[in-house]
Structure of Beta-ketoacyl synthase N-terminal-like domain-containing protein:
Amino acid sequence: MLAEARWPEDGDEGAAPGVPGFVHSGFAPLVVAVAERCLSRRYGDGPLPAGNRTAVLLASASGDTAGAAHVRQTVAAGGRVGPLFFFQSVPNSVAGHVAARWGLDGPVVCLSPTGDPRAEGEAEAELLRDDGDAAQALLILIELAPDGTPGEATAVLLGEGTRQ
């Protein structure tokens, strides 16, 4: 493990800061908050140099439940679903946002684990490194809280590391 971050950590109160282009749900802000923390602990402000071969792995058993519930309620009420929901309904969109912001040029993979999310994510990261697809992997583990509270997320940077 090269770096790790969580949300919440000491001093965090409430929801993670919003992310332009992502609305209504705390899912994307949580992903971005832990990814930024983790990567900045290893690399400062970023972006990473080209050729870093850093994969992004997003693991969530339930995904963006808040966004999905909003879409379901809007459709059931005969309302119009805003276009941003089509973009953000795919977890790859926020993983791609992180990759673009930091210049991560490895694969982007989203997992819906059925067992231990960290173990499944680490196994996938190891496969990507063993196959030569990535030198390191940013593994983001996230679940929104079912009661409407912000939820929790963890990001770990795994692998051989990249020099700046």
